Amino acid sequence: MTGHTAIVTGAAQGLGEVIARTLHGAGFRVAVADINEAAAKAVAASLDPAGATACAVALDVRFKPSFDVALDMLTTLWGDVHLLVNNAAMTLTTPVMEITPEEFDAVIAVNLRGTFLGCQVFGAYFRDRGYGRIINMASLAGENGGTATGAHYAASKGGIMTVTKVFARELAGAGVTVNAIAPGPLDLASLRDKISDDKIASIEKLIPVGHIGNPAFVAATVLHLASPAASSVTGAIWDMNGGLLMR
Predict the structure, then answer these.
(1) Contact present, 67 and 117 (Cβ < 8 Å)
(2) Are 1 and 26 in contact (CB under 8 A)?
C-alpha cells in the first residue's frame, strides 16, 4: 500500500489510533484526524516525526466544511486520498429513560451524522477519481440493541450500517467500495479504564469464544478491506463479536 493515503477519524486514541498505526505500518501515508488536535499531532509525530508520511488533521466530524477542509489539505499535501475510515464516536451508557434530547442529538451528531458527512465528502471525491475505499466503524450494539451501551449509541451504530449500504449502492459503479465493521467488546484502554478486571471476566463468560476482541485484528481487517483487490466486497457488515451474534 506504499503511496496510498488514508484518513482515519477519531484516531488520536483507542481503536482509531490502532487503525492508524496499522495502516502506516503497511505503507499508507496516514492523516490522524481528531477533534483533539494536540493529541492527533502527538500520534502523527510518533508515526513519522518528519511528517513525510503522517500528519494531524483537526476535524470536527459534525460539520461538513470540516471534512472539506481536511480533503483539501490532504490533496494539497500528498496529491490524492484513497481511503477513509470513519471511526470517530461518542460512547455513552446513560440508561435509556434518562437520556435527554440534547444528549441523544449529541451522540447522533458525532456517530451517525459524522459518518454520513464523511461518506458524502470523500465518496464524491473517490467517485470522481474512479477509485476509493470507505470503511465505517459500526458495532454489535447496532445489531442487538446495545445491551451494555446507551440507546443513542446503539441507534447511531445501527444507522451507520444502513448508511454503509446506501453509499455502497450509490458508489459501486465508480470503483468505490463502502463497508462496515461491527465489533463487540474490544480489549482497549477505554474499556479497562471504565470496567474492573472482575467485570471484564464476567463479560467474557458470556462470550462464546471466552474472551473480548483484539483491536489489532479489527485494524488488520480494515487493511484487508482497503486493498485494491477487495473490489468485489461492498455493502458488507463484518461481524467481530466472539459469537455473541451469529447469523
Answers:
(1) yes
(2) yes
Q: How many CB atoms lie within 10 A of CB 156?
A: 29
CA 45, CA 52: separation in Å to the nearest integer? 10
Half-sphere CA count of 159, side-chain side, radius 13 A = 17
3-state secondary structure of 6: strand
β-strands 237-240, 29-34 pairing? unpaired
Rg (the chain; Cα; Å): 17
Query: In the 8-state DSSP scheme, what is residue 213?
Result: B
Q: Which of 115, 153, 155, 177 is catalytic?
A: 153
All domains of the chain in start order, with CATH? 5-240 (3.40.50.720)
pLDDT in tens, 121-154: 999 999 999 999 999 999 999 999 988 789 999 9
Which position has the grid cell 481536511?
70
| 125 catalytically annotated | no
Question: Is residue 67 within a helix (H) or strand (E), and if so which, with residue range?
Answer: helix 64-78
